[in-house]
Every structure is written in structure tokens, then in C-alpha cells.
Write a structure and sequence with these properties.
Chain B: It is found in: Cell membrane. The complex is a heterodimer. Chain A has six helices and no strands. The radius of gyration of chain A is 20 Å and the shape is elongated. Chain A is mostly helical. Chain B is mostly helical. Chain B has one domain. Chain B is globular, with a radius of gyration of 19 Å. In chain B, 59% of the residues are buried. Classes of the chains: A mainly alpha, B mainly alpha. Chains A and B meet through helix 1, helix 2, helix 3, helix 4 and helix 5 of A and helix 1, helix 4, helix 5, strand 1 and helix 10 of B.
Chain lengths: 142, 318
């Protein structure tokens, strides 16, 4: 039998759930980022914008860059996944999205422990991150 | 033995510094060559970014700072990319580092989810506002503010003290209500440390500023998180460092989405930087055993100050 101090040395259940999901999501995201980037730079999948055009345009601010290269901001990349450059966004979005999944997963664990205050905090965090990810807060820069 | 460590530290630092400066000078000449349609192909950029961020990753670990705080000032100072894209990449670089470290720190119970959640809520909400303001402001203003912030970070790094086990006699009512406390075992001594925090509302107020700056400049905010958690709120140093690293994965996520949705993410810049800095960090951790971190820390502060002054110069004189 563990005493109270020994037991509290271990991470709390919601923390373990969070860590496990974060670990899997992060690994999967990183692998996707690397694989899609290799496909992109080796030219296996044709890009929407050529490399030379990107290099000649990245001194512009984001507004002029998007305008010049005819790129739609926001979630429009989802409809361009056939292109090597936009395919990279799958892994990047996964890395940026895994935290939302982690917080969603800990809500039931916290509620089960009767920790309604932290469940509310987790819910609010999901709401904030989802709002940021939604694109509702404006797109296109400058 | 000490002098050998010192020599290795100075050697590593000199190589890091030399490589970074060489690459920076090369980056400027390469962009000129690209603009005049001669010389180097596009592939030079990911290679150059990989080399620079790899060295940066080593320097960051040895200097005790996050990669994100080095990335934005150095890359925006010496590479031709517009600040919009550097900030987008900087956030993703810091985010990837925090995501990679997060699971281990949480499982070891060094990063505390209970401590991080209330703080993260504030920092992530304000990093969204910071990102939106940063993208709305003219680049010159952001560049000047970035330069000023980097100089401020250098001063903070030079002057801030650390307290391994701050004394917290009594938790305040917020931290008591939120049960922002915990227990961990100090691996070096086997000592079991019970920790609690105080001055919670003051800390939460400061995290508003941290979130704003992280979003506006695309910087990781470990340089600010650790002093607030450790010196102001009274969390033990190890808990502060680990929770700060984990916290970045939440704060930077919200700001990263704003930059991503605004089109500020160019994979050709982001991916080699992300891989370079992560691999560099792995090597840095190994070098930490033989190098003398104090010397490297001075060099890192010097590099940051130089990059900060360059950002100020770019902002003022264009």
C-alpha cells in the first residue's frame, strides 16, 4: 500500500490522460510534417506555388504575399491538399490542434473526480483554442 | 578539469557564434543573388535555415533559453523573410519544442497541469489578442517593439535571480481554492518537496502581458514564465521551468492558429527550422555535460542583444 505522499508523487489521472494524448498526437504530427515536407521538396507532389516564386516573394508582407501568389488564407488549404506545399499544413495543423483534443479528453476525467471548477477551466480553454483555430477572428493579415 | 570544461564551453560558444554569423552574412548575399536571378537555387534556404537553427538549438540548451526567443530576433535580423513569416515560424518552432517536452514533464509530475490551467487560460486568450494586434500594426512598429523587448529580455536574463525552493508560508485564497499545489521528489537528493503558491492574482495579471508579447512577437515566453512562476508565485524552480515549458504548448497554440489562419506560415521556412532546432536541442543536451553553461549563457545574451539592436535599427532606419 502506498502512503498519501507516495501516491501524490505520481501525476494525477487527468495529467496522465493529457500526457498520453499529447505524446501520440505530437509524434504523429511531427512524422506527418517530416514526410509531407520530403514529398514537397523532392517534387514528388507538385506545389501550387513554385519554390523560386516563394523565394522571390517572402520579403513581402503577408497581405501582399497572399495577393501576389493568389493564396486564400484561413482554412482554404483544406481544398488544396493535392498540392505538395499545402499538404504540409496537415501535419502543422495537427501539431497546433492536439492541445484542444487533450483538454477535451480531460473534461470527463475531471468531472468523474467531482472537480467541476477545473472541468470548467478545461472547457473554457477548448473554447478559446477553438475560436483561435476557427478563423473567425479575421484572416489575411495587415 | 575545470579549465578543460571552460575551454570546451568557450570553444562550443565560439563555433556557435561563428557559424551563426557566417550563415547570416551568407543569407544576405544569397538573397541578393536570388534577387538578381543568379547564383543559388531555392534549396539553399532550407539548408541554411537547418544549419542556423541546429546551431541555435545547441546554443539555446546551453544558454538556458527557449529556441523561440532566439529564433525570431536572429532570423528576422539576418534573413530576408518578412517579419510576418518569421513570427509564424517562431511560434511553430517554440510550439513543437514545447509539445515534444510536454508529455515527459507531465508524466514525471514536474510540469503541473493544475498550476498551468488557470495561467494558460489567461495567457492563451491574450496571445490571440497579441497576435491580432501584431498583425494589424505596421511592421516598423512591431520591429521596434521587438527590438526593445529583446533588449529587455537580455536585462532580465542578466539580473533575474532564481530560487530553488521559494518559501511560501501560506497559499492565498485563489491558489487554495484552485488547489494549485503539489508534491515532487528532487532526483538529485531524494528529498520530497511539498509546494504551494501565493500572489496568484498578481501572477495572473502578469500573464496577460506574457500572452500579449508571445502573440505579438511570435516568441516563446519561457524567459517570462519562469521568473513569474518561481520568484513571484513561489513555485519551486524545477516545477516552474517544467510548467513553463508545458505552458508554451498552450499559449503558442492559440497564437499559432491566428498566424496560420492569416497565411503567415510558409512550410519552406517552418519545417527545416523546426527540425533543425529540435535536433540541435538533442545535441545541446549531450554537450551540456561537458560544456560550461555560464560562458555559453553570456554568449547567448550577447547574441540576443546584438539581434535586438539590429531589430531596433531595422525598425527605425528600415
Amino acid at each position: 500500500m502506498m502512503n498519501d505522499t507516495e501516491a501524490s508523487l505520481n501525476a494525477r489521472p487527468e495529467q496522465v490522460v493529457y500526457a498520453n494524448i499529447l505524446e501520440k498526437g505530437m509524434l504523429f504530427g511531427l512524422i506527418l510534417v517530416v514526410v509531407t515536407y520530403i514529398l514537397y521538396v523532392l517534387g514528388v507532389i507538385k506545389p501550387f506555388v513554385s519554390m523560386d516564386t516563394i523565394v522571390a516573394s517572402w520579403t513581402l508582407n503577408v497581405h501582399d504575399y497572399l495577393h501576389k501568389l493568389h493564396i486564400e488564407p484561413g482554412w482554404a488549404w483544406l481544398f488544396m491538399l493535392g498540392y505538395g506545399d499545402f499538404l504540409n499544413f496537415v501535419g502543422i495543423a495537427l501539431l497546433a490542434g492536439v492541445t484542444v483534443v487533450c483538454f477535451l479528453a480531460v473534461i470527463p476525467v475531471l468531472l468523474k473526480q467531482g472537480d467541476r471548477l477545473y472541468a470548467l477551466l478545461a472547457f473554457l480553454e477548448v473554447a478559446i483554442l477553438s475560436l483561435a483555430a476557427s478563423g473567425l477572428l479575421g484572416t489575411g493579415g495587415h | 578539469m575545470k579549465s578543460i570544461h571552460k575551454a570546451i564551453g568557450i570553444g562550443v560558444s565560439a563555433i556557435c557564434m561563428g557559424l551563426l554569423l557566417d550563415c547570416a552574412v551568407f543569407a544576405e548575399s544569397a538573397q541578393q543573388a536570388v534577387q538578381s536571378s543568379s547564383g543559388y537555387g531555392w534549396w539553399i534556404w532550407p539548408v541554411l535555415l537547418f544549419v542556423v537553427t541546429f546551431v541555435m538549438g545547441i546554443a539555446a540548451v546551453l544558454g538556458g533559453v527557449g529556441g523561440g526567443v532566439l529564433f525570431v530576433p536572429i532570423i528576422s535580423g539576418f534573413f530576408p523573410f518578412h517579419l510576418d513569416f518569421v513570427r509564424g515560424a517562431g511560434l511553430l518552432v517554440a510550439l513543437a519544442g514545447a509539445l515534444a517536452a510536454g508529455p515527459g514533464l507531465l508524466k514525471m509530475n514536474l510540469a503541473s497541469l493544475r498550476l498551468a490551467m488557470p495561467v494558460a487560460l489567461i495567457a492563451s486568450a491574450f496571445s490571440i489578442i497579441g497576435a491580432m494586434v501584431g498583425l494589424a500594426l505596421p511592421t516598423k512598429i512591431v520591429q521596434i517593439a521587438l527590438g526593445g523587448t529583446i533588449i529587455g529580455i537580455c536585462i532580465l536574463m542578466l539580473t533575474a535571480k532564481k530560487s530553488e525552493f521559494p518559501e511560501v508560508d501560506k497559499p492565498d485564497w485563489i491558489s487554495a481554492a484552485l488547489q494549485m499545489n503539489g508534491v515532487y521528489q528532487e532526483a538529485t537528493t531524494g528529498q520530497i518537496v511539498h509546494w504551494q503558491i501565493h500572489r496568484t492574482w498578481q501572477g495572473l495579471l502578469l500573464f496577460i502581458a506574457v500572452g500579449l508579447m508571445a502573440g505579438m512577437f511570435g516568441l516563446g515566453a519561457g524567459w517570462a514564465n519562469v521568473p513569474i512562476l518561481n520568484l513571484l508565485m513561489g513555485a519551486p524552480l524545477k516545477i516552474s521551468v517544467a510548467t513553463s515549458k508545458f505552458l508554451l504548448s498552450i499559449t503558442d497554440t492559440s497564437a499559432a492558429w491566428i498566424y496560420l489562419n492569416n497565411g503567415c506560415v510558409i512550410p519552406l521556412i517552418v519545417v527545416p527550422s523546426l527540425i533543425g532546432i529540435m535536433l540541435g536541442s538533442f545535441v545541446g543536451v549531450r554537450l551540456l555535460r561537458v560544456a560550461k553553461p555560464t560562458v555559453v549563457r553570456w554568449i547567448v545574451i550577447g547574441m540576443l542583444a546584438f539581434a535586438g539592436l539590429r531589430a531596433l535599427h531595422k525598425g527605425i532606419f528600415g
